[in-house]
Amino acid sequence: MSFYPSRIQEHFDRPRNAGEVEGADARGEAGSLYCGALLRLTLAIDPARQTITDVRFKALGCGFLIACASALTETVRELPVSKAAVLTEEAITGWFGGLPAEKLHCAALCREALHLALADYHSARQEEWTDEEALICTCFGVSEKSIERVIRVRSLRTVKQVTAACNAGGGCGSCHMLIEDILSDYWRTRDTLI
Amino acid sequence: MRDDIIYLDNNATTRVAPEVFEAMCPYLADLYGNPSSAHTFGREMRRSLARAREQVAEALGASDASEIAFTSCGSESDNWAIRGALELHPEKRHIITTRVEHEAVRNLCERLERDGYDVTWIEVDGEGRLDVEALGAALRQDTALVSVMLANNETGVIFPIQEIGNLVREHSEALFHVDGVQAVGKIPINLRALPVDLFAVAGHKLHAPKGVGALYVRRGLSLPPFIIGGGQESGRRAGTEAVPYIVALGSACELAHKSDAHALIGRLRDKLEDTILSSIPNARLNGTRDRSERLPNTSNISFEHVEGENILAQLDAAGICVSTGSACNAETHEASAVLRAMNIPYTAARGSIRFSLGRYNTESEIDYTLEVLPPIIRRLAELSPYREAGSSGEAAKA
Fold first, then answer.
1. Which of B12, B159, B211, B284 is most buried (most C-beta within 10 Å)?
2. Is the whole model's pTM more than 0.90, yes or no?
3. Cα separations (Å) of B288 from B78, B272, B303, B391?
4. Chain A contact for B330, CB < 8 A?
5. Residue B198's beta-bridge partner residues?
6. Which of A4, A18, A35 sits opposite B383 (nearest CB)?
């Protein structure tokens, strides 16, 4: 009889991808005031493919958190950033056939660390972006100009429509505010001109 | 005897000693009489009870066997002592106890506080030692009861009962209850020389089975009964006596009293503790370093920046049974009240492990534990997101 349920125990005994990615492109840390746990994710991302090529974790927490973090790393390795950004907790809990209610926050903590790591990556990319036009959607590499163009050409009014038209905003969602701004700027200017 | 586990959790409970088992067995079979019966068979049982009472009295250094009353467990003894003492003096509404009592005392006093009693909670310092001065200063005319444990179950720190009792006697008319559950069988006790009115014992902590305890009630103190019914235990505790268990408690007390196992246990504990503290960089002792103020069998050690539950799980896989002072349950994850009262930093309290040895531990078991533990801690430290956990030596202690 193992200390934890067998599927948890297996990951706890041999956690996948423990450690840190050297020279990581992104780093996300999530802690829980609820249980005092701390999780750190480090990612390597191939900018050409917009894909997570390496991922490592370090965790201080119960066996469930360690198992969830281990499962998360296996899930997002070789995953495009855009898909990782919309990953749900079920993608983690599914590894274990679900989790007891009081341990669901372990999976939530993992998802949060991943989102923070991706946000870290996006802000780094926005800073690094050397093109003249601003990069808005880092998940799909869509610039401000491209978004403006698609709004103008197709008379788009909502973020949803923009995403459908050019993918911008289809990943982590962190650029939705910026797209809103572009939309309202465009339509205000246009309405004024008329 | 199970040889597939190394049992280092003797403060939680202990194995029933073979001698104790042998002593109680006939009472689970042929000797089933009721001590209250008038016939010879019943009288035989009364004699067995009397003998057990003497064995317990002897081990506790009581002046007289009549000072011992049998109960079902340590918690019952504590509850009876506290409720009984308050019932004796209903006009007195003040209780003094400590922040680090066992739940049997702590939760009861919290409840009494909610019920309108004025409770003074005495603090401990960073090494788990009681602020005796504050206790002395807290004594009042209307103090009904002072309740202090003899030895702490988590850290093994021993409180100066003699000194506290003297203060209680000198500055108040309060009754003095001592929760001795964790100390009996581990250190010598001589109640006739101590200013103590009530003293709780639990059988399963000293190699008797679970389900039996005792309360020492100083001669001359007529403590009102907690369980009301028949006239058993001289009218102090109703309910047909659990003869097999009481016989077992008597036998266990005699065994503890005559045993010289303490010295060996102390030597093994010292070896375990010294080696862990000197060889594992992020290890720190919880509780006083002065071993004369600590039970000889207990070591509470924090492995900083490592999760106690993880250590417990890994030791469990290696067949080693220990406890942790931090547990993640459905409601919350917090350090134990004892470690919090000691102001142990959360990152250390979280990784605390209690090793509590007993008379059946062997040197080779300790050696095996010392072989298994360092790689477990190293591996978990490498997994820890706190940088300090993975580093070594002074950096980790700074």
1. B159
2. no
3. 26, 16, 17, 26
4. yes
5. B177, B217
6. A18
Supply the pLDDT for residue A174.
82
Touching check for B332 and chain A: CB below 8 Å? yes
Which chain A residues are within 8 Å of B317, Cβ to Cβ? 2-3, 13
> CA A45 to CA A80: how far, in whole Å?
9
Report the candidate in B271, B287, B255 with the shortest Cα–Cα distance to residue B361.
B271
**Mutation to test the A interface, candidates B5, B310, B316, most A Cβ within 10 Å:** B310
Put simply, the answer to whether B382 touches A18 (Cβ < 8 Å) is yes
Q: Copy the structure tokens of residue A1.
A: 């009889």
Residues 6+ apart with CB under 8 A from A98: none
Integer Cα distance of B144 and A165 in angstroms = 79
Percentages (nearest 5) of helix, strand, coil residues in chain B: 45, 20, 35
Picking from A155, A180, A156, A184, the residue whose alpha carbon sits closest to that of residue A169 is A180
CB within 8 Å of chain A, chain B residues 354-393: 382-386, 389
A167: left (phi over 0), alpha (psi -120 to 50) or beta: left
Residue B381 has a pLDDT of 93
Q: Cβ atoms within 10 A of the Cβ of B132, count?
A: 15
What pLDDT sits at residue B388? Answer: 58
Token pair for B81? 């002592």
User: If phi over 0 gives left and psi between -120 and 50 gives alpha, with beta otherwise, what is residue A63?
Assistant: alpha
What are the C-alpha distances in Å from A47 to residues A124, A126, A138? 12, 12, 10
What are the residue ranges in chain B where pLDDT is below 50? 330, 392-398
Whether residue B54 contacts residue B70, with contact meaning beta carbons closer than 8 Å, is answered with: no
- Enter the ipTM: 0.81
Annotation marks residue B73 as catalytic: no
Is B385–A60 a contact, with Cβ atoms under 8 angstroms apart?
Answer: yes
User: Could you say which of A36, A58, A62 has the minimum Cβ distance to residue B383?
Assistant: A58
What angle in degrees, to the nearest 10, is found between the helix axes of B308-317 and B363-383? Answer: 130
Q: What are phi and psi of A93, to 5 degrees?
A: -65, -25
Residue type, B198: L
Instruction: Please tell me which of the candidates B328, B385, B386 has its beta carbon nearest to residue A62.
Output: B328
Phi-psi region of A126 (alpha: psi -120 to 50; beta: other; left: phi over 0): alpha
pLDDT at res. A71 = 97
SS3 call for B323 = strand
Q: Which pair of structure tokens corresponds to residue A84? A: 């990782």
